[in-house]
Design brief:
seven-stranded mixed beta sheet; globular; five-stranded antiparallel beta sheet; 6 helices; alpha/beta
Amino acid sequence: MFTQSAKYYDALYKALGKDYATEAQRISEIVADRKRSDGNALLDVACGTGKHLEALRDRFAAEGLDIDRNLLAIASERNPGLPMHLADMISFNLGKRFDAILCLFGSIGYAPNLVRLEQTLQTFAKHLKPGGVVVLEPWFTPEQWDDGHVNALYVDEPGLKIARMNVSRRDGNVAVLHFHYMVASRDGIRNFTEPHRITLFTHEQYANAFRNARLTVSFDEIGLTGRGLFVGTAPVL
């Protein structure tokens, strides 16, 4: 889904002011506080371009996973030597367990329905060591969604100008984001569009998915970006 925009992803979120280093510090604190396993193996699910991994790799034996090969290629180049897995977050099977699993930046919303959300959390739980933790940043809930919101994001760098615009729409319980890009570089000016459909799960649906995966769950209302964080802990055997 990021076929055309992957190479601009970091520039866009730099313009948005995303602070990966501060978020990584907060993640490290949460994992240290909540995990009861004795290792430091970490899997970043839907790792994107690997900016969180870059900030976490010195603290954890870190690995990344993403369904988009273009984003994963950037993550691999940014984090040489870290294992990277091309796989779907819903049903991956790595044959190993981790002390911490992350799923950040609302990526969980790409699970297309409640059944797939439940399956995703069960997949995470299957890959956790006893006492390990899942740190999940939700997408917007139906109550938080601002239908019809007009949004624009601009990049103004030497040699690169980007305008990304969209009008937020809703199709039932799905947020429809149809991004329109105009990109100017030394190679010229190009336009393209990129559709995203992201499910608006309720708070209780997230919490129940954790419980059904046999994870003890709590919710931090502030989280990393204001959307909150669900933190689930696997039982200690």
